[in-house]
Amino acid sequence: MAVTAGARRQQFQADHDQKKVLLSIRKVTKYFDEELAVDNVQLDILEGEIFALLGASGSGKSTLLRMLAGFEAPTEGKILLDGEDITDQPPYQRQINMMFQSYALFPHMTVEQNLAFGLKQDKLTKDVITERVERMLKLVHMEKYARRKPHQLSGGQRQRVALARSLAKQPKLLLLDEPMGALDKKLRTEMQLEVVDILESVGVTCVMVTHDQEEAMTMADRIAIMDQGFISQVGSPVDVYESPNSRMVAEFIGSVNLFDGRIIEDQEDHMVLQCADLDCPIYIGHGVTSGVDERNMLFALRPEKTLMTREQPEGEFNWSSGVVHDIAYLGGHTVYYVRLPSGKVVQSTLVNTERRAERPTWDDPVYVHWAGDSGVVLRS
Amino acid sequence: MKIRRFSLSVTIFWMGIFFLYGPMIMLVIYSFNASRMVQVWAGWSTRWYGELFRDAQLMSAVGRSLQIAFYSASTAVVIGILASVVMVRFRRFRGRTLFSGMITAPLVMPDVIIGLSMLLLFVAMAQSLGWPAQRGMLTIWLAHTTFCVAYSTVVISSRLREMDQSLEEAALDLGATPLKAFFLVTLPVISPAIISAWLLSFTLSLDDVVIASFVTGPGATTLPIEVFSQVKLGVSPKINALATIIIGVVSLVAFSSWLLFRKIDQRNRAAARMAAGH
Lengths: 380, 278
Prior knowledge:
Chain A is an alpha+beta fold. Chain A is built from 9 helices and 20 strands.
């Protein structure tokens, strides 16, 4: 299933330009009394994509989602769905449906009645409703549970029902609020791929909110990183992980080693940073494009992009000596915490391809090195 | 050692039971007394039950009390729901604290004061507006509604406060207007609280003698007032019979609701087990 999602992502990349914009968020700002919750957000969501708003709690992502659903009104700005201004529409008139974090299944209704609720509000005929409810039950594999009440279902089953209910009205846009928030870890991984499969088969455009980066990267085509009401970066999972545009994004997604450096050479095809924490300078395989007066830079290096060896690497760039300070064996890979002579601790990940291989152990002298294009230069 | 502790706790248990239920048992036994004198035992008889049903005055008081209790409870619950929604769901408005304070004030107000102030109000209204022209069932109903609203609002608003607000949002999200969402989702979810508020109000109204005796008028004697005035002339065994019937009905209702709740609970647990091990 992961493969199909990946293939879809490539397909998505290919016709990125041809897709039309379904939802347009234009300079939306929201104040709660004096407190700024959402700060001048500008976003375009394309038709058919799964878009994730990723951020810590209090970053304004949930407020933004609630404004899309119509539960909060923006202080400033406009929201356009399919070209139509829906900023002032109440929730019950929007062609947007939401799956709530608590699922919000109506406790006094059976699964069937829950699914039919939205359809009844549209005054559809009985036959159409029955047919649609059956189709939805089939979609989420819950046919056997049609007459159960929500409290008679497990967490995963409730989630399926909630998803089916939000899809039953065939909304233009689906909103997911922390979709896996109420599930345990094992079920979470399972459901992430299943939900993506279901969304894919329906072909609905989806905006989700999550604080779990793994979830966002597994499910979404594009991710927006939110911090203090502001969108820091928008891009594919690869973009935000491999090319973060700020220290905040680099630190928020995955783990990262950060080095303060000073530019000592800046050419078109390469640059060299001098860093006090390292034994030798950092060589980077590209120059800084925009004119920079600022000479101090931040070098961000992911732990899995580093190599740890016992022998001293060749060359005069991109390595440092150190001692193994701590080891976190995680089964699939091991994270080594290497203390450099300056006292700074650097993380280095080693994939455990061999069983019980001979590895450096605590207090062993080692060298950490990396290739010229492994890291990212950020303005500090 | 073990036996002694056991017997001590058993003794205390029976003493407690006797303390709570002894008077009632006495009353039930004496309702079957053949003698006219309450204190003198003269053998078993159901004579007073027959007398009770022949006492038209007492019977009409029972009917009137049930009627007033029914209307007061129903009105109090409707007003209680409205007040709860205003208190819990509305955004903060000027005078909100004052409003919720006023709603619940009758909880701590002595009945005598409520009754007296009601009486003064009704007299003043009758003089200035000409309505209500006479004190009677209408004024008792109004007075009972007033103090039952306090109790029903407390019960209903606490349930409404606990309710997951995203349920209402989900209803709106699925296309229901706010009014429809209220009737289709909010009301059913808080219905257990509404039922208990109704039962509580019904009991309070049926039970009240102080407020009713202030605001009652000619031809509107409620059961507690009737019983009170009859007892003043000497306790009649008929009253014992009436009390026994009331105790019986109350126990039956309590027992059957307990049975019903236990059955629902068992069914839910069985279903939950089935769902867990599917």
